[in-house]
Amino acid sequence: DQQVKQNSPSLSVQEGRISILNCDYTNSMFDYFLWYKKYPAEGPTFLISISSIKDKNEDGRFTVFLNKSAKHLSLHIVPSQPGDSAVYFCAASPSGNTGKLIFGQGTTLQVKP
Amino acid sequence: KAGVTQTPRYLIKTRGQQVTLSCSPISGHRSVSWYQQTPGQGLQFLFEYFSETQRNKGNFPGRFSGRQFSNSRSEMNVSTLELGDSALYLCASSLVSAKSTGELFFGEGSRLTVL
């Protein structure tokens, strides 16, 4: 029972263009949604989050959109840079007050110079 | 501010052995969670400790256990190792409060290989 799904294992974009990473979830009780970035041989690092009561959150080049009716969220990176090449994980929190996150399978983003 | 520290970074064991992994959280963080990352399964939640008590548990067999000490440092143990236990084990700490948004701070992980 996979409650958080990232259906695209990989994505390739040109430097300077927009990267859009998608994530679907099944549990409408999730409180927060987060995106993490992971480089090889490193732990995941937090990128951006959004509360379930909002539909958009922006931080510099990163914007997360939440569509609760579709149970879908997306991460937009504009403009994409070669240093953004990494694995991106979508995660959902049943409650912001715990250390338990439900992660998607990850999407490998490659940004070509 | 020091990050989350995990030891050892790499280890090799044989089937049937047991292993203990250690995690030191960020100073002031009282919640420590453990995750298993494998190529096919992504990151899967093992358990969470808060104030020396396990308060969340994932869907893993009883061979996987953990504990937390009074200084918030945590250990996880896997007994009777199986080949399928080969994975990257990640520890994460968080500052749990009423204003928390679920953000976790991860260590670099302990890469376990079971032969």
Task: Provide an overview of this structure.
The complex is a heterodimer of chains A (113) and B (115). Chain A contains no helices and eleven strands. Chain A has strands at 4-5, 10-14, 19-25, 32-38, 45-51, 56-59, 62-67, 72-77, 86-93, 102-103, 107-112. In chain A, the strands form two sheets. In chain A, strands 2, 4, 5, 9, 10 and 11 form a six-stranded mixed beta sheet that branches. Chain A has a five-stranded antiparallel beta sheet with strand order 1-3-8-7-6, with no helix packed on it. The relative contact order of chain A is 0.34. The mean pLDDT of chain A is 93. Chain B has strands at 5-7, 10-13, 19-24, 31-38, 42-50, 53-57, 64-68, 74-78, 87-94, 105-106, 110-114. In chain B, strands 2, 4, 5, 6, 9, 10 and 11 form a seven-stranded mixed beta sheet that branches. The model of chain B has no long low-confidence stretch (mean pLDDT 92). Classes of the chains: A mainly beta (113), B mainly beta (115). The A-B interface holds A 31-32, 34, 36, 41-46, 49, 51, 89, 91, 93, 95-106 and B 4, 31-33, 35, 41-45, 48, 50, 55-56, 58, 90, 92-94, 96-109.
Please write out the topology:
The complex is a heterodimer of chains A (113) and B (115).
Chain A: E1 4-5, E2 10-14, E3 19-25, E4 32-38, E5 45-51, E6 56-59, E7 62-67, E8 72-77, E9 86-93, E10 102-103, E11 107-112
Chain B: E1 5-7, E2 10-13, E3 19-24, E4 31-38, E5 42-50, E6 53-57, E7 64-68, E8 74-78, E9 87-94, E10 105-106, E11 110-114
Parallel strand pairs in B: 2-11
Antiparallel strand pairs in B: 1-3, 3-8, 4-5, 4-9, 5-6, 7-8, 9-10, 9-11
